[in-house]
Write a structure and sequence with these properties.
It is a single chain. By secondary structure, the chain is mainly β. It has one helix spanning about 1-15, and strands spanning about 30-40, 40-45, 45-55, 55-65, 65-75, 75-80, 85-90, 95-100, 115-120, 125-130. The protein has one domain (about 25-130): Immunoglobulin-like (Sandwich), CATH 2.60.40.10. The strands form two sheets. Strands 1, 2, 3, 4, 5, 6, 9 and 10 form an eight-stranded mixed sheet that branches. Strand 3 and strand 4 (about 55-65) form a beta hairpin.
Length: about 130
């Protein structure tokens, strides 16, 4: 009988600790975002936007024909912009082509000047107009 009660208690504890929100694991909640990005007035054909906060893994959103859509952490995000140009095959990557980021340096890495505040509810429709100079 005590094993049976122990099983019920253990089962209830497991159900009580389970959840779907990212707050359960210490990460901020995420919310849907979408928008556009232009470089020198032209839609960026392909690339990536990384939305992140200090101590939080970035959410990577692909860019296709100047548009992006996905989820990002709620709150003030640092945004990084990447355009990858394929290079020659590399032994370092098992013969796969290497990729080089050709986006302007002011939009990626620790010195990125892009930011976005993501709201938990409502529309997070973003527009980034960046320049190569």
């Amino acid at each position: 009988m005590s094993r049976f009660l122990f099983g019920i208690i253990l089962g209830c504890a497991a159900l009580g600790s389970a959840g779907c929100g990212s707050e359960q694991n210490g990460l901020p909640p995420i919310a849907p975002v979408k928008g556009t990005i232009q470089l020198d007035g032209q839609p960026v054909p392909t690339g990536e936007l990384h939305f992140g906060m200090t101590g939080v893994p970035p959410q990577v959103l692909p860019i296709t024909n100047g548009a992006f859509e996905g989820k990002a952490p709620v709150g003030k995000n640092k945004v990084e912009f990447f355009i990858y140009q394929e290079g020659p095959p590399s032994g370092k990557y098992g013969g796969a082509a290497s990729k080089t980021n050709v986006a302007p340096a002011k939009y990626w890495g620790p010195n990125s000047t892009l930011e976005a505040t993501i709201n938990a509810s409502g529309t997070n429709d973003l527009k980034f107009d960046v320049t190569s100079k």
